[in-house]
Predict the 3D structure of the following.
Amino acid sequence: MQETLILNHQEISLKLDRIAWQILEQHYNEESLVLVGLAENGTDVAKKLETRISKFRDIKVITITLSLDKRTPLTSQVEVLNSEALSNSAVILVDDVLNSGITMAAALKEILNHNPKSVRTAVLANRDHHKFPIQANYVGISLATTLQEHISYSEKEGEMTICLR
């Protein structure tokens, strides 16, 4: 299947800058933020957002990883490293691509168990094929795709791309 480049490194970098500013605008009165990245790619995106947020404003940012089986997210075991940071915190749940919303819903369920102050979601690409009532608050790009198409985020040699297959 042919792969089509949707966003190149420079475009993704600009999207991440914009998302970081949007997060700061909506959390201007917070002293700290917790970014929860869905392992693997979500954590990579969260770390990139952490770098930008910290560069734009002097605010404490904690990035933690939430791991689950993305094939069976609703029934898999969820592991959150440093979960005590979630309690009474402004939390941003981060992933690379929002597909059906199932993975985000499972992650959100676990985050809510730790009594956060607020939870928002950030994704680089939103596919608009949601099966669950999960919407991204911060979005790099929204795409209307067919169910057979696949969007992938990758980083090779420091160069980020988002492609459609």
